[in-house]
Amino acid sequence: MHLERAVDDFAAHLSVERGFSAHTVRSYRSDLTRLAEFADGRGITDAGDLDLELLRDWLWSGSKSGLAKTTLARRSAAVRALTSWLARSGIVPSDAAARLRAPKADQHLPRVLTRVQMDGILAGLSTRTLDGDPAAIRDLAIIELLYASALRVSELTGLDLGSIDLDRLTVRVLGKGSKERVVPFGVPAKNAIVDYLVRARRELAVEPTPAFFLGARGARIGTRAVYTLVASLIGELPGGGGSGPHALRHTAATHLLDGGADLRAVQEMLGHASLGTTQIYTHVSAERLKESYRSAHPRA
User: Fold this and answer.
1) Which of 75, 138, 152, 255 is catalytic?
2) Among 281, 288, 293, 299, which one carries the catalytic annotation?
3) pLDDT tens series, the chain, 300 aa
């Protein structure tokens, strides 16, 4: 099979059979298209002619051109997924990337806001709602729910009217790999959501739609709009790291662990397939404890 066709068929497999998001499929396709271009430069156009040496050369060339370790690790994961699928499907006799290894990505602790910072953000948003502006009321509900339930931005924008149970204080979300989970939220988030439904959503709606959060034009709010909102709120706050919605997810997870929540309960809430992914937040909590100790203890 021609390598470019193999990439197309693999992308379709990820989308249709595995239920990967469009963003993830684009990322895989982009990396594997670069592999196909690199292989073509070596005179290789058939998927069956891929071998470990070529794949190592591809990663090595990326390393020499200055690609970050995270990018190399992502490329390695993409090609391992491709060759594994090719072998399982019987398109090629063996998995060329079974022994492929990429440099380990540098570990950076995620950005976590303090409770004081979160209180200030939410208080400021609440003040903006006093004049009844529908967008301000919606924004408060969005931030309250992101922080309360540690949702991914795609999960939040994908919510429909039937996704939220105000009686049980839960939200049903469709996470990575089309896996559904039910996540709790608290009374402040409920109050903001009810206020949004009563005072804002009807004003924002242009025509009937099942989408829960609506944008300026009355359609389902997009991830870019939520990114812009969150960045405007936390971009200038002290602290390194990203200023997008994922920072609120990191913050919620860390505050849960700081408050004594069980690690496996947090794993389930976040929708992590591996406990190891959730454990990064225990490192964040430990670092925050060390910082508090160094700044507060007289003999630190």
Assistant:
1) 152
2) 281
3) 999 999 999 999 999 988 888 888 999 999 999 999 999 998 999 999 999 989 998 998 888 888 888 888 899 999 999 999 999 999 999 999 998 887 665 556 678 898 999 999 999 999 999 999 999 999 999 999 999 999 999 999 999 999 999 999 999 998 877 788 999 999 999 999 999 999 999 999 999 999 999 998 999 999 999 999 999 999 888 776 778 898 999 899 889 888 888 888 888 888 887 777 777 776 666 655 566 556 665 654
176 part of the active site: yes
272 given a catalytic annotation: yes
- Compute the 3-state secondary structure of the chain and give helix, strand, coil in percent, each to the nearest 5: 60, 5, 30
Q: What are the structural domain ranges in the chain?
A: 3-88, 115-296
**Which of the residues 80, 190, 246, 255 is marked catalytic?**
246
Among candidate residues 138, 201, 249, 255, the one labeled active-site is 249
- Say which CATH topology domain 3-88 has: DNA polymerase; domain 1 (1.10.150)
Question: Is the entire prediction scored with pTM above 0.85?
Answer: no
Considering 13, 29, 172, 176, which one is annotated as catalytic? 176
Active site residue 281: yes
CATH number for the segment(s) 115-296 = 1.10.443.10
Contact, 281 vs 253, CB < 8 A? yes
Residue with tokens 């570990």: 107
Give exposure, 114-146, as e/b (b: 16+ Cβ within 10 Å): eeebbeebbeebbeebeeeebbbbbbbbbbbbb
